[in-house]
Amino acid sequence: MRILGLSASILAIVALNGCAQRPPTQSLAPPQPTPTCSSEVSCAQKWADAREAIQSVVGMRLRTTTDTYLETYVRNRMPFLVGKVEKVPLGGNKYEIRGRVECADRNPSLCGNLPYTGTNAFNAIVGTE
To answer: What order do you get walking across the sheet with 81-91 strand by strand?
Structure first.
């Protein structure tokens, strides 16, 4: 599946990003647009992609799965990340697939830019219409 190959590549980048010291002047990648869908078929595919993407980006299996919400287990090693995805209605048949990677550590500075880069990676994997 194209998602798994792309997911593995992005996961490797995210993992290496956590190890590398970033110079203070280096900027982050521009934010990727939040994925949307506007048909039953498109939304079913995006939701399936979101399930795979959030697990790949965070590196953990899903703990909670509903028709409108996904949440991974918290990583048991640093950085302590958790992934969450919501399917939010925008009206009509249109939905936004809002994924986010959060730092679950008591000291959020230990996660650095990983929540931003992880969320960005999720958005890139799931994509927009």
So the answer is: 36-37, 94-103, 81-91, 69-72, 62-65
